[in-house]
Structures are given as C-alpha cells and as structure tokens.
Amino acid sequence: MRYLCLHGRGTNAKIFEMQTNQHEYDFLEGTMPWELDPDLGNLVSENDETFALFDENNPLTALTAVDQLNSFVEVEGPYDGVIAFRQAVGVVATWMASQARQKKPSFKCSVFLSGAAPAVDYNALQKGIFVQLDPRALDCRIEVPTAHIWGTNDQWKDAAEATSQLCRADVRSALVHQGGHEVPGVGSKEALHETLNMIRRAILQSHAAG
C-alpha cells in the first residue's frame, strides 16, 4: 500500500520518516520555515531545517497548503491512504472534505494523529477567512475509514475531536490515550497497541470497501 505522510508544525519529513517504517511512504514537506518543535529536539541536529505547512494566523497560507496537497496527489498519486500528524491533520481533512463536497475521490483510508488544527471550509479559505466546518454538514462528510488518535492532556484535543466528528461514524475509530500531544510509543505499550489496532481497522475496512 502507498501512503502519503504529512508532518506537523516545527518538524520535517525526515523526522516523520524516522517515526514510521512499514509499507511504502511518500513524505510531503512543509514549505514555510519554522522553529523546531521543542519536543523533537533529540531527533535532529541544530543545522536541520524545520517547517510548517501554514501559518495559523494567515488563511491564505492554509489555502496554499491545501492547494499544494491537491497538486501533489494529482501528480504523484493515487495513494491508498494518508497519515497526517499535528497541523497536517487540518490540511488533509480540509482537502478531503472539499473533495467530498465536489464528489471527487481522495484516499481509501486516513490516519489522523494528534490533530492540532481543525478542518475548515475551502470556499471560505479562498476568500481569506477561516471557517471551521460543521460536522452536521453531510455534503462535506469524510466517508472513508479513518483512525483518530489524540491525548486527553493534549492542548489541541478539541481540534482533534472536531476532525473525528467530520468522518463517517460507522467506519471511524478513535483512541483518546492518557498522554498529551505525542503519538503513543514504546513508553506506553497499551496505548501503542490500541493505536496500531485502530490503524489496522481502518486499513481492513478500506480493503472491505474495495
């Protein structure tokens, strides 16, 4: 299976690649230089550049990020699935919701890790404003199997939960672990095991859907 992977704010594609190691992955890097996420200082040297996908105070940079994602998928795709981390969750969910509204395909399944930005209305982005999508709006519902993982102590947990509510309930799996903004690792074996089960479930559901 081919997966497209998008990193969060203050990191880079190399760091994300270090954190994943199965299947075939393409890593899409942000284009806005950004200071290193302080939680990731042990993964990179002081000379490594880190990036953001967009500036959360500037809607036009978010529009650019969504358009860049669309162009990348058109050229390099199709992809079986996507793995989005932190800020990238908002970009990917915004694009997928826009695709759904236009009745266009996106991915067969999606994994959203520690979402730190909500999905917003693409049409509003084009006008230069952020408008968070209403999960009750069925025309932009994300229909494919999804896995959502975030921490109960994550300062952005509301954004992560809002993204999950945009997704079709019967093929949506969610795990709220006891940590913060991190993805469960070997230090939390139970949460790691549950995370892997959520991801496997989304993949199997996508296979069943054909």
UniProtKB/TrEMBL annotation:
<keyword id="KW-0378">Hydrolase</keyword>
<dbReference type="GO" id="GO:0005634">
    <property type="term" value="C:nucleus"/>
</dbReference>
<dbReference type="InterPro" id="IPR050593">
    <property type="entry name" value="LovG"/>
</dbReference>
<dbReference type="InterPro" id="IPR005645">
    <property type="entry name" value="FSH-like_dom"/>
</dbReference>
<dbReference type="GO" id="GO:0019748">
    <property type="term" value="P:secondary metabolic process"/>
</dbReference>
<dbReference type="Pfam" id="PF03959">
    <property type="entry name" value="FSH1"/>
</dbReference>
<dbReference type="GO" id="GO:0016787">
    <property type="term" value="F:hydrolase activity"/>
</dbReference>
<feature type="domain" description="Serine hydrolase">
    <location>
        <begin position="2"/>
        <end position="184"/>
    </location>
</feature>
<protein>
    <recommendedName>
        <fullName>Serine hydrolase domain-containing protein</fullName>
    </recommendedName>
</protein>
<dbReference type="GO" id="GO:0005737">
    <property type="term" value="C:cytoplasm"/>
</dbReference>
<dbReference type="InterPro" id="IPR029058">
    <property type="entry name" value="AB_hydrolase_fold"/>
</dbReference>
